[in-house]
Amino acid sequence: MPEIPLLSTDRAQTTDETDTEPLEDAALLASDIELGYGEEIVVDCEHLVIPDGRVTALVGPNGSGKSTLLKGLSAELSPESGTVLLHGRDVHERSVPALARELGLLDQENDAPGGLTVDDLVTHGRYPHRGFLDPLSEDDYAAIDRAIDLAGIDHLRETALAELSGGQKQLAFIAMALAQDTDVLLLDEPTTYLDLHHQLRVMEVIRTLNDERDVTVCVVLHDLQQATRFAEYLVALEDGAVYDWGPPEEVVTEQLLADVFDVDASVRHDPDGDPHIVPRRAIE
Ligand SMILES: Nc1ncnc2c1ncn2[C@@H]1O[C@H](COP(=O)(O)OP(=O)(O)OP(=O)(O)O)[C@@H](O)[C@H]1O
What we know:
Blueprint: E1 26-37, E2 40-51, E3 55-59, H1 66-73, E4 81-86, E5 89-90, H2 96-102, E6 103-106, H3 118-124, H4 138-151, H5 166-179, E7 184-188, H6 196-213, E8 216-220, H7 224-230, E9 233-238, E10 241-246, H8 248-251, H9 254-259, E11 263-269, E12 275-282
Helix pairs in contact: 3-5, 4-5
Bound molecules: adenosine-5'-triphosphate.
């Protein structure tokens, strides 16, 4: 796979190749976007590419702007300035259902009426593909079954959301996003509330979608070690701006851990070059 320029950070701007905008390789391309709430701008991103057909992890400390950036990429939040292109076209140019057929977003906070069953919720993921009053098609049923199976919640299909644990509810919302059956999937902390088994399961689902169906995934993860293990690219945010980007073995350095995460840690590389973080202490 050829190397592609992802972001025009200071580091990237040292080469001429960054002037070439690799549109054909970009699932999402954000240019000069400022995102915020009311008067306050909390994300200021000059240039960001989420590469097509890859898994990219957004990492950074609490409040660094990961969720806000994901909302901006998904058109849930309109930028104060700048543009976000999805496969070359402004995300705001599409109708809501048309966008939802191409791009799925699992928010950090999810809620739905507790009386709905898991099946009802996952069926909701099919609405972009059909009219509200249309009966479910064979494609709809197949997508719902596949999503429930991938999420491993077959046994919960008839259970009301109100009766689920936090982790089970999280898996139900993940299944809803999977049923949407999009080429691009943005996931905000999908492993929150999940035990280790289910965290690994969700990450395996992401890998399967990417390997077998070429789905582009951009996922916010708090666990930096998990992010380095599963993602091909990392985007590290600090105070609403991109601090660094690239393959994990390049991004995860002792400098990044100190500058961005306020952590004193060593980084060791295994024989494959994968970084392993060994934290010593939180920096005062
Ligand atoms: N709805 C909102 N209204 C006002 N300010 C907000 C809102 N949502 C987030 N913010 C602010 O925007 C900044 C970035 O928040 P954001 O949730 O994007 O960060 P994050 O990196 O996802 O954090 P975390 O890891 O804690 O989830 C924070 O200062 C936060 O207080």
